[in-house]
Amino acid sequence: MGYDLKVFTGNTNRPLAQEICNILDMELGQAVVGRFPGGETQVQIDENVRGCDIFIVQPICTNEEEGVNPNDALMELLILTDAARRASARRITAVLPYYGYARQDRKDRPRVPITAKLVANMIYTAGARRVLSLDLHSNQIQGFFDIPVDHLYSINIFVEYLLKKKMENLVVISPDEGGIKMARAYAELLGAPLAIVDKRRWSGQKTEILNVIGDVKGKNVVIIDDLISTGGSLTEAASVLRDKGALEINAVIVHPVLAGPAIDRIENSVISELIVANSIPLPKHALNGKIKALSIAPILAESIRRINNDESVSNLFANAKVEG
Fold this sequence. Notes:
Blueprint lengths: L4 E5 L4 H11 L6 E5 L5 E5 L7 E5 L12 H17 L4 E6 L18 H12 L3 E5 L14 E4 L2 H11 L4 E5 L5 H11 L3 E8 L5 E7 L6 E9 L3 H12 L5 E8 L5 H6 L5 E5 L13 E4 L2 H12 L16
Parallel strand pairs: 1-4, 4-5, 5-6, 6-7, 8-9, 8-11, 11-12, 12-13, 13-14
Antiparallel strand pairs: 2-3, 9-10
Helix pairs in contact: 1-8, 2-3, 4-5
């Protein structure tokens, strides 16, 4: 490897960070990440990091079991980064399996913030000089950073799982026009046709399915999207597809935010299986039904190894036409 490599993490997804370290055959970095009695975030790195290549694995999300919300996760990331910088780390990379606030990436109404850009500024100011992220909500978020961004895709992991299911007469579904390019990449790797759900979003919680563009009658379908929040759009799209004659309905949604009634909606829907990544920690009870989590640790570990060795990361996705 290149410079001495060390991986640290906060409290949002420690099992993922530990799995990455196991693959890299190294120990997870020792650091205290907790709370002062007044509720402020407490951080202390308990080992020497001078001159090291530091990777901080921290999705900006909720972990109910640890009592962490996205704002806590962000503060842990920023303070860990600042602590490593002040301890004379050679380079600090923020590893963001899930980039919180990504959906606030533009001014779509008067007097609203562009929080995705604000978070990017905060990460840079704290001392990060590289970002490693997975399946961003929109590619232009990479431009919000004034430092290198390695944007990873989980498509190979999900396609391998779908191929093992050996589903016949498969159609890949994009839930809206914004996801067409990614859904097309899945369709090409799976050798399946593409269909599109014509959806209109009225607010952050309310959407309306207007039509399905493509033939799904008598077909097995898989819906492709980057995240699921309350589950309303996904379950409504699945119902419309069933009404149009679709048979088995599966969904591949990378980031399982699963807020509010999402888990109950999935369990009570016509969806046969919801396949997600472990970019966000799932409550244990969520994995006892229709939800299946696949590990993204191998792709993150290999990317960390390549960055540390100054090797190409984009070669990992040479067979998947997800860029350009």
